[in-house]
Amino acid sequence: MLAEAKYQCALVTGASAGLGAEFASQFAPDCASMVLVARRGERLLALANELEGRHSGLKVYCFAVDLCSIDQRQKFFSRLKSKGLQPDLLVNNAGMGDVGAFASSDWGKIQSMMDLNMDALTHCCHQFLPAMIAEQKGAIVNVSSLAATLPIPDFAVYAATKAYVSSFSEALSIELADHGVNVLAVCPGPVHTEFGETAKRGEQDRNVPGREYFYVEAQQVVSESIWALETGRTRVFPSLKITLAAVLIAATPLFLLRKVMANTSS
Ligand SMILES: NC(=O)c1ccc[n+]([C@@H]2O[C@H](COP(=O)([O-])OP(=O)(O)OC[C@H]3O[C@@H](n4cnc5c(N)ncnc54)[C@H](OP(=O)(O)O)[C@@H]3O)[C@@H](O)[C@H]2O)c1
Predict the structure, then answer these.
(1) From the CB of 93, is ligand 1 less than 6 Å away?
(2) How confident is the model over 47-69, as pLDDT tens digits?
(3) I need a surface site. Which of 41, 43, 85, 108 has the fewest CB within 10 A?
């Protein structure tokens, strides 16, 4: 392991695509070793090879795990322990959405979304925090969303899971203030990744007027998140336009937000 690296072991969930792959790439120069997790192991291996090729001395471990399954999570934790891998940076990025009316949603998909967005994220924090506290050193990046800041019809459960992530991260950050562990909630607006494909039901497409204007590149989301972590922030809304949107939402009374959101519903 590289003793001078900022992080001895960085664990990134959902590293097979989108923001997770970008987090892995941008954190890689600061890491002695990395653990990449997602279900599509072949994608993780391709990224691991690329990162090891680019950064001499970096060792990347890949684990194909369905994080919705508590059994698979527990087996994964045991395998990490048996390899002596103890993350001092945890990026809880894996997440999914579901677009459409709640009443007609598929329960299996809703359950998976809650398992992944909330249970798996919380379980990973619970698993890796004690060692960080013992070392008085560590960082947790929880990927939330701008969606955490308001109720979103046709995206109701997703927005609620992200409200959980933001609230949990804020409280954790206060609990850990004296333990040398930074906690950051990343709250992006829309980003072009595989997220939209996974979230939509069949061929349906939810066309929100003006939405395209709010898209931010994955690269910018991640670089601003790393900056926020390094400067000790607790929450970041990457890009100026998403920060302004968050400020506007926070300043709007709930009765007005309800009216605005009612007009976005299909
Ligand atoms: N894209 C956006 O507009 C946007 C906006 C705000 C917040 N976010 C948040 O950003 C995070 C990353 O999303 P993304 O946009 O990068 O989406 P993405 O391209 O769909 O990537 C999602 C990642 O999560 C992994 N994943 C999904 N289900 C999993 C499971 N059961 N077990 C393990 N890994 C699983 C996927 O890998 P496998 O399929 O290989 O398992 C993939 O690596 C999510 O938390 C999302 O809520 C996204």
Answers:
(1) yes
(2) 999 999 999 999 999 999 999 99
(3) 108
